[in-house]
Amino acid sequence: MAGEVRPPELLDEPELILENGEVYRNPTEVKMSQIVLPCHANHCGELSVGQLLKWMDSTACLSAERHAGCSCITASVDDIHFEHTIGVGQVVNIKAKVNRAFTSSMEVGIVVSCEDLYRNRQWKVCHAFATFVARRTEAGKVQLKQIIPRTQAEQMEYSIAAERRRMRLIHAEIINDLLSSSSAHAVSECMQFGDAVPAERTRVESVELVLPPHANHQVSTFGGQIMAWMENVATISASRLCNAHPTLRSIDMFHFRGPSHIGDRLVLKAIVNNAFRKSMEVGVCAEAYQGGEPLRHINTAFMTFEVLDQDKKPQTLPRIRPEPVDGKRRFQEAIARKKVRLDRKYIISCKQSEVPLSVPWDPSNQMYLSYNNVSALKMLAARNNWVLTSEKNKVSLYTLEENHVLCFKVETHVAIAAEQVFVLLSDLRRRHEWDPHYKECEVINHADEDDTIYRVVTPSISKGGKVQDFILLASRRRPCDSGDPYWIALRSVTLPAFPPTENYNRGEVVCAGFSITEEDSCLAKLSYYNQATPGVLPYISTDIAGLSSSFYSAFASCSAFLEENKDSLAAVPSAAPGEPHWETI
């Protein structure tokens, strides 16, 4: 559950029946169905990815405009991974809906599935998240109305959309940090291979004249059309490296830097930046001009291709020899982007069964671990099938069991401002003052203002047994909008400098943490969540079985702690003098 942050559209959820007896449908939802004809297909009889991108962008734009009530433009598209191809005669089903609206931008979720009419089968092809911006009207800048989630899936998407927005804003920073720490060793190695293909051989340049059929209803070049042209030149470039027909597997997150209009000459350039063993990265740039004006940068994208054999398995690709200066820079950047893709796949996209409970932490994957940490907690909190197990003095214990995994939630209200509760509970070093399960706690690394890594020691489960220790990543989030909760998410990570030792049993936390919701200026709802693991379950098993009420005692102590310290707000925890920072580990 915590290790897999999947689009909630993929979760099975019962239909919501409205009071009038009708089945609820999201008011921003737009559906498109297209049968794949030969004119849509490539040489293999499969749907061209460029055509699919056009349909996806069109569907998402109509969803955005339905919510905004005015024209919208595509601002960016997150990573897209294509799981399957689509053949001629099959049906493409695309569903798009607005997950969350911000001031003038909104996130639209897109799910693409394929339908075989003759075999009565359907399967998922890809999902994507696109950001659209509402265009100014005569009245000025548009202020979008908020989305009100009605179902569990909508609540999950609404909550996690804030995390995805945060990731988009720091995406360039992550790449730059990776580039600054990379070396040129791989480039020099590749230059020594005599059989390496010169990158210059893969260079492609093509020009397109933007005509009325290429424009949308706003007389601007259709974003999907630009993506289709970019995919075309990228495919040609990839083919020149391998002398075969490549298959597009993924497109990295990209942003539209500026608009294009009817009459523009769109110049598209592509080149293979790097060839890995079974895949290659192609960089594509789109620029526009009219008459004698200088080129305007429209978009840059990075696409990953594979070459499949007869059994649909990726083949080994030739090495590539980068061009001097800019080619070497592109070669190194491709390595950094591959690292980002692997981190995302390993930390964000994989199923829980495919990754260990504790993921290795380092500065390069910090942002993705933080995203996974908070998103997993938000998904757990959004579940609507919690069962009340016991209640005492307005402290409630809920449980949830799914797929042989037991989760619990403890909830109460405190007569203290939500922000004060957030600041006091954010510093785990003070948790031992109210939680008997926290014996010791020290800061290992203060990664940034939102993330801190702690080592926590808990008492022995059995008399005479070893005490337990945990290496926990604490990720904090303030509200994105009014009405949003504060979040403090916890999960286990591993650090080479802090391996398990003989004197302690190393425990694991998959997903735990607090949500703090402001109900008025001096009242907050405090909820604690935990996905029970073997290291955590013994501490709460008697409460869940109804044999004790230690959960009440702990939360009563927490309330007293908050009341006593509400006038002394703690600072964000940082490493004390003598405590190691990452640079010294």
Short description:
By secondary structure, the chain is an alpha+beta fold. 26% of the residues lie in helices and 31% in strands. The longest helix is centred in the N-terminal third of the chain and has 30 residues, at 152-181.
Oligomer: single chain
The radius of gyration is 26 Å
Helicity level = 25-40%
| Alpha-beta content class | alpha+beta
Shape by Cα distribution: globular
Biggest sheet, open or closed, and with what strands and sense? Answer: 11 strands, mixed
Number of helices: 9
Mean pLDDT over the full residue set: 86
Distance between the termini: 31 Å
By DSSP, the count of extended strands is 25
Write up this protein.
The protein is of the alpha+beta class and 585 residues long. The chain has nine helices and 25 strands. Strands 15, 16, 17, 18, 19, 20, 21, 22, 23, 24 and 25 form an eleven-stranded mixed beta sheet that branches. A six-stranded antiparallel beta sheet has the order 1-4-5-6-2-10. Helix 2 (152-181) packs antiparallel against helix 5 (326-349), helix 2 packs antiparallel against helix 6 and helix 5 runs parallel beside helix 6 (366-381). It starts with 29 loop residues before the first strand and ends in a 20-residue tail after the last helix.
What are the salient characteristics of this protein?
26% helix, six-stranded antiparallel sheet, 25 strands, eleven-stranded mixed sheet, disordered C terminus, globular, 9 helices, disordered N terminus, 585 residues, alpha+beta
Please give the structural blueprint.
Blueprint lengths: L29 E6 L13 H20 L3 E6 L2 E2 L9 E11 L3 E12 L4 E14 L17 H30 L3 H7 L5 E2 L5 E6 L13 H20 L4 E5 L2 E2 L9 E11 L4 E10 L6 E11 L13 E2 L4 H24 L9 E2 L5 H16 L5 E6 L2 E8 L2 E10 L3 H9 L13 E7 L4 E8 L8 E11 L8 E9 L9 E3 L5 E9 L2 E9 L5 H8 L5 H16 L20
Helix pairs in contact: 1-4, 2-5, 2-6, 5-6
